[in-house]
Design goal:
CATH architecture of the largest domain: Up-down Bundle
Largest sheet: 4 strands, antiparallel
Low-confidence stretches: 398-411, 578-591, 671-675
Number of helices: 31
Number of domains: 4
Number of strands: 8
Shape: globular
Radius of gyration: 32 Å
Distance between the termini: 64 Å
């Protein structure tokens, strides 16, 4: 018999230990992440009193898969459109608090004489608060629907995407070992290029693929396809020099824009939980008690730096973003911990061999302790706010915050709009299009020269191969090249500006020439590489191609169709969901009201009752704005609207009203009775019940008097007839009844 592989034995040890510890931590109402880390310490090489994992390298591979699934799931909850709709407030808060905490972490490392890379990576880890831990803490404390919770989670989403940028920056610094402005700028431009490319191509291709294969996609195939797409982008990201976590995150964010996003998240959750648990266990395996004993002063200093730094700088950052003092304090105090992303950054430093061995276990110890104090920090925000209100004059407390950009009314362009606004609109819309289409054209040219050219030269010879490659590359890029030149030329802003004098006309002509020169340059790059002709001849050919691009109706229609498909894919999930307008929710927040969506549990006593019977307005001080039931949505329901179990209610209220609403929702639950009688199926001969003969089923009173249901009439030949309310009961009939055993027996 073959010996069981070591990895199987290790997984058995890890999962059993993690399961037992997770149950204990669940009982103690502590985050499961902490339980997994403790389980990792128990099975790790530094704990000699318990069984230990033998194949650490194999577990490391599994933990890498765990990081991939964690980042993929994080991407599924992320949306570029949500970031745009958030406005500048959360962006200001996230960037500000991260910069401050990077500085705090670097300062603490320097105080203990650590190396430059250790200080820099420590600052990066301290800048990343834990989305998982904060979400769980808010849920346990019943604060998930309060106003500040939405602000915190918005900033955490931004921290996650900024954390990706931070990882790229740290990787570049780790390789060069010094800060070089030009190299950093080149790295950021490269990152922007791939972000745009992956997002544009992904949004065009992935939703279209799912739409065309929808009738063949089941839960099993959706799981396989989504994981395959995830690892495809992971492999591609690794091949161009980025981390696997970055590729997984990007594919998750692409799938987040599809209507299958919730289904993908549902099927992927068990795998994320499994491999995520293994990742956190592997983190705990790195905890070395000797290191903790040797570095306990640094651990205490880092804990103090996080809790005080986030409380101070986090509050200041939210104040800077325009939030009132109370909300800012609650947000800042909530961020006082580090979590899963810090471990990913620590793993990056360890894999690049640029951080010291002690840093990882020190950060793990800090994470455990700060996670434990997270609920207490959240609850401490209100007493601190009350104390500040007592000692600070009211005129400072009640200062209005900066109005969020997203709350400003959108300006509708017209003949009377100022020239400055018209130029801003024209330049922004044109610039975005030029950048996107240039990236796509450049990518097509690069792929053609690197992949198609060697193949065509091999089969056709150098000259013929070059011609074929050139024709294919320019043909494939032609819809995008035309869009660079033509798109946005006839917008309302451009038409109005042309009527306002020669200065504006020449400005628009200059903008057209700039766009034209970009296209000519792109075509010239391909021709100069493939053509043996003189440069001036290639220039003439390029201009001829540009003219063909402009006059060709086929290329025009193809360009319009591609752009339209992309926009439809981008808005598809938004249209189907028909969710409550985010801008409306933000305007409510300015008046201490906000809208949240709460699902009615399946065992709620509210099921079957109308809004007038439940009387939420008087009981809790909230208003039900919409009821979502599957694909159906009822906006502005009246008092006669009935609530069903599983409904998603969009409710509006302040923090106290929403808290009372959730409390009552939790109280009005049907307790399951283990001794509840089972349903019984009983065959009853009407010959023994003459009082029922001659009555219709509706008149018999079987349902009303005995709480039983007639499910069939048995005919003389043994066949069953489905019952109707008008069916008259005859002496020869045999009824089949369903009901509780005691009710059936009472008949």
């Amino acid at each position: 018999m073959e010996q069981l592989p070591t990895l199987i034995s290790d997984l058995e040890l890890i999962l059993i230990t993690a399961g037992i510890v997770a149950i204990i931590f669940k009982r103690l109402k502590q985050p499961l992440v902490l339980g997994y880390i403790v389980a990792g310490f128990l099975v790790g090489p530094h704990m000699t009193w318990t069984p230990t994992v033998a194949d650490s390298e194999g577990i490391s591979t599994w933990s890498t898969i765990g990081v991939i699934f964690l980042m993929f799931s994080l991407g599924l909850e992320f949306s570029f459109k949500k970031i745009i709709k958030m406005g500048t407030g959360p962006i200001i808060a996230a960037a500000s608090v991260m910069m401050c905490m990077i500085g705090v972490g670097s300062l603490v490392g320097n105080l203990f004489g650590w190396g430059g890379m250790d200080c820099l990576f420590l600052g990066g880890m301290l800048a990343m608060s834990s989305t998982t831990i904060i979400y769980k803490a808010l849920e346990d404390l019943g604060m998930r629907q309060q106003k500040f919770a939405g602000e915190v989670l918005s900033v955490l989403i931004l921290e996650d995407i900024l954390g990706i940028l931070l990882m790229v920056t740290l990787s570049a610094l780790a390789v060069s070992r010094q800060f070089q402005g030009m190299e950093m700028a080149a790295s950021l431009l490269k990152l922007g290029f791939f972000l745009t490319l992956w997002f544009i191509v992904g949004i065009y291709a992935v939703p279209s693929f799912f739409r065309k294969t929808k009738k063949w996609i089941t839960g099993e195939t959706l799981l396989i396809v989504s994981i395959g797409l995830c690892f495809l982008l992971v492999e591609f990201a690794d091949s161009v020099g980025y981390s696997a976590a970055f590729g997984a995150f990007m594919m998750g964010s692409i799938l987040a824009e599809t209507i299958e996003a919730e289904s993908v998240e549902h099927v992927i959750t068990p795998l994320k939980d499994l491999f995520g648990a293994i990742f956190f266990v592997s983190v705990g395996m790195m905890v070395d008690p000797d290191v903790l004993l040797n570095y306990w002063p640094a651990i205490l200093a880092i804990i103090a730096a996080i809790m005080i730094g986030q409380a101070v700088f986090g509050t200041m950052s939210f104040l800077l973003s325009g939030q009132p003092l109370k909300v800012s304090l609650q947000c800042g105090f909530s961020l006082a911990q580090i979590g899963e992303f810090a471990f990913i950054i620590a793993t990056l430093g360890d894999s690049l061999k640029v951080t010291s061995n002690f840093l990882y276990p020190v950060v793990v110890a800090v994470s455990i302790i700060t996670t434990f104090f997270t609920p207490y920090m959240i609850k401490a925000a209100l007493p601190v706010n009350n104390w500040i209100e007592r000692i600070v004059p009211n005129r400072f407390i009640r200062l209005k915050g900066r109005k969020d950009d997203t709350e400003k009314e959108e300006i509708a362009l017209s003949e009377h709009t100022g020239s400055r606004i018209l130029w801003k609109n024209l330049l922004v819309s044109t610039g975005i299009g030029v950048v996107v289409y240039t990236i796509l054209s450049f990518t097509i040219g690069t792929i053609s020269l690197s992949i198609l050219l060697p193949i065509s030269n091999h089969f056709l010879g150098e000259l013929a191969g070059n011609i074929v490659c050139c024709v294919v590359a320019i043909t494939l890029a032609s819809p995008f090249l035309r869009a660079i030149i033509i798109r946005k030329n006839r917008t309302l802003a451009a038409q109005v500006l042309r009527k306002r004098g020669n200065a504006h006309k020449w400005g628009i002509r200059l903008l057209f020439l700039v766009r034209l020169s970009i296209v000519v340059t792109l075509i010239m790059q391909v021709l100069d590489y493939l053509s043996p002709l003189y440069t001036w001849i290639n220039l003439i050919i390029s201009l001829a191609i540009v003219i063909l691009l402009i006059v060709s109706k086929r290329i025009k229609l193809t360009s319009i169709r591609l752009e339209r498909t992309f926009k439809q894919n981008l808005r598809l999930r938004e249209r189907q969901a028909a969710t409550f307008t985010p801008s409306y929710a933000r305007k409510l927040q300015a008046h201490d009201l906000h809208a949240v969506q709460i699902q009615v549990p399946v065992n709620s006593r509210w099921g079957g009752k109308t809004l007038s019977q439940l009387d939420f307005s008087n009981a809790d001080g909230i208003v039900v704005a919409a009821i979502q039931r599957g694909a159906m949505r009822l906006n502005i329901p009246d008092a006669r609207a009935v609530i069903f179990p599983g409904d998603k209610l969009t409710v509006i209220g302040d923090d106290d009203g929403l808290h009372n609403f959730q409390h009552h929702l939790g109280e009005d639950m049907v307790e399951m009775n283990e001794d509840e009688e089972e349903i019984k199926l009983q065959r009853v001969n009407i010959y023994n019940y003459p009082d029922l003969v001659g009555k219709s089923l509706a008149e018999s009173g079987i349902r009303q008097q005995f709480n039983c249901l007639v499910v069939g009439f048995e005919n003389e030949d043994g066949s069953l007839e489905l019952p109707t309310a008008q069916r008259v009961i005859e002496r020869k009939d045999t009824l089949w009844l369903v009901g509780r055993e005691s009710d059936v027996n009472s008949i």
